[in-house]
């Protein structure tokens, strides 16, 4: 067997950044990936000249210039700005909650009028300083109308629970902006890589010191891999690594339903959230709008996103970072410390929600820690 320095399990962003940087430092790396493609959840592929985000809408945003410069080595980014809209029972509202939304809801025109309206609703709801659940927390932050129309149904679908049964801490703050600004993120840099995300990971892994094999599950040969490779970077599920011996960590999963339509423009925006309780999906993505309509003029691809309960074998999209799971994860990290030659990284290895810029940062730190 070729003398590799590292086995990287998972060809997502964490694994790819680690492999790339380790290769630049002269290390030999084998990457294995259980899916039949690289790039993990940021994977995009082309249909009718349109880049389809297979695992949900991905918008790159950061205020860290170093990370922005880093990722720009691998792709040219367009100026896409995330401005989703909400569809509540057929009426459209701008997001995040801003002066446009307030005008659509109440006809208010000035910041003071909108502030008065929200304050009035908060005080009428008589929520104490200690909100008992997510519903109370949300009303105390944005008032009753925004909560009822734009928060409640969406959140309940997302978590599969009633807002009154969800803990208040899930919503520490809700973005409220007293300007006519529909830009969802406050970050300095934002965009979508022209030609999709997969090329980024492709270029990271395209190095003579890196060998990649897709369609290979680490757990089919775990003991052998651990014996054969001096160091392992593991970006799969930490509880699965330990054969769930302390119990299962919980996740929320998603089901994506994609459709190719013979129209140029289906919904006029990349992301439309459906915020009522009755519509079973949370949002529809129309992929061509991430690249300003690039692609076939007679075709479009849309994807409906349905939140679903996670069970073993499903794709674990979002960690459920409540007290029970965070405690359990901590116990797994104690076991991890005893696995001398294995580093656990990425959203599944570290059981936390990472945005792309954060996962790049975490992978660069891991390389720094390993190799200086
Ligand atoms: P990722 O899951 O991408 O990679 C891990 C890889 O390991 C996977 O390819 C998996 O198949 C593989 N693997 C697991 N177990 C294995 C095993 N046993 N053997 C072999 N391979 C194995 N971020 C952002 O900045 N802006 C955004 O708009 C969004 N949007 C968004 C939408 C949705 C729906 C989700 C779920 C997430 C986002 N994100 C996001 C977050 C973004 O997807 C995330 O930061 C990165 O994909 C994380 O990269 P990782 O490498 O950690 O995991």
TrEMBL record:
<keyword id="KW-0413">Isomerase</keyword>
<dbReference type="InterPro" id="IPR015899">
    <property type="entry name" value="UDP-GalPyranose_mutase_C"/>
</dbReference>
<dbReference type="GO" id="GO:0008767">
    <property type="term" value="F:UDP-galactopyranose mutase activity"/>
</dbReference>
<dbReference type="InterPro" id="IPR004379">
    <property type="entry name" value="UDP-GALP_mutase"/>
</dbReference>
<dbReference type="Pfam" id="PF13450">
    <property type="entry name" value="NAD_binding_8"/>
</dbReference>
<keyword id="KW-0285">Flavoprotein</keyword>
<feature type="domain" description="UDP-galactopyranose mutase C-terminal">
    <location>
        <begin position="149"/>
        <end position="353"/>
    </location>
</feature>
<dbReference type="Pfam" id="PF03275">
    <property type="entry name" value="GLF"/>
</dbReference>
<keyword id="KW-0274">FAD</keyword>
<protein>
    <submittedName>
        <fullName>UDP-galactopyranose mutase</fullName>
        <ecNumber>5.4.99.9</ecNumber>
    </submittedName>
</protein>
<comment type="similarity">
    <text>Belongs to the UDP-galactopyranose/dTDP-fucopyranose mutase family.</text>
</comment>
